[in-house]
Amino acid sequence: MEIIVLPTATDTAVVAADIIEQLVITRPAPVLGLATGSTPGPLYEELTRRHKGGLSFAHVRAFMLDEYVGLPAGHPERYAEVIRREVTEPLDIPLEAVQGPDGSAADLPAECERYEQAITDAGGIDVQIAGIGSNGHIAFNEPGSALTSLTRPKTLNARTRHDNARFFASLDEVPKHVLTQGLGTIGRSRHLLMLASGEGKADAVAAAVEGPLAAVCPASIVQTHRHATVLLDEAAASKLA
Ligand code: F6R
After folding, report:
1. Which of 45, 106, 141, 188 would you call most buried, defined as having the most Cβ atoms within 10 angstroms of its Cβ?
2. What is the pLDDT of residue 96?
3. pLDDT class for 224, splitting at 50, 70, 90?
């Protein structure tokens, strides 16, 4: 695990974009793992700037980390929509090259198995982008998630629903259930880029990188990942020893 601390989230986005650019220009069929939420915003904006400057993403395939259960197709907060708006369209990645778990599937466990297999069939994820929840979750693996878990349905805990309520008109509208890549799925990615910014993430970051490897802090899997880069702004790093 490598920890990089830079003054601002814009600075960390540049380093993350350098890593992704290197992948995209050197590999014939790169596979990216995409996160949603506020954290990767500056990274997606930096990649969009580079795309406008000539960096092609036409040969990229991508897999989303997670999805809400029950939001109708086209709902602006459905993660498939968020990724289309913030990543697929700005980077001109072909729509069919980006997949997520389908939170409207009739058989959710079967959909999770299909998704896990689709990642395997694509040869696995080269660079997985991830944020961290204020409670230490990664993707939607809430505290208590099995360290070897695969893509599966999960129930969001109260703190995560409260944190995500800012994207919805009210707390009641935040879905209670999600489909998420598991900690084992994320563990199989070839390079994990975990980004965090802001003081609100400082406790979770300290627990993830300096606490024990433990299900109580799912993001602590960064410590055992074969190649993890933790990119922090100074506020998110402020509780490190
Ligand atoms: C989103 C995801 C979540 C977020 C986390 C932080 O796809 O998997 O784990 O990364 O909840 O969210 P933000 O970045 O909004 O603080």
Report:
1. 141
2. 97
3. very high
- How many other C-beta atoms lie within 10 A of the C-beta of residue 17? 21
Structure token digits, residue 129 = 């982008």
CA of 66 to the centre of ligand 1 (A): 10
Read off the tokens for 119. 């990642």
Q: How many residues does the chain have?
A: 241
Ligand 1: distance of its center to the CA of 137 in Å?
8
pLDDT tens, residue by residue, 69-123: 999 999 999 999 999 999 999 999 999 999 999 999 999 999 999 999 999 999 9
Ligand 1 centre distance from Cα of residue 62 (Å):
17
Q: Whose CA is nearest to atom 2 of ligand 1?
A: 139
Assembly ipTM = 0.99
Rounded Cα distance, 18 and 129, in Å: 13
Say if ligand 1 is within 6 A of residue 36 CB. yes
Q: Does residue 37 line the site of ligand 1, with CB under 6 A?
A: yes
Structure-block tokens of residue 45:
């904006």
Give yes or no for residue 38 CB within 6 A of ligand 1. yes
Kindly give the number of the ligand 1 atom that is closest to the alpha carbon of 36: 7
Strand, coil or helix: 55: coil
Q: What is the mean pLDDT of residues 134-142?
A: 98
125: left (phi over 0), alpha (psi -120 to 50) or beta: beta
CATH of 2-233, one of 3.40.50.12780, 3.40.640.10, 3.40.50.1360, 3.20.20.140: 3.40.50.1360
Map out the domains of the chain as residue ranges.
2-233
137 lines ligand 1 (CB under 6 A): yes
Q: What does the alpha-carbon distance between residue 81 and residue 151 come to, in Å, rounded to a whole number?
A: 20
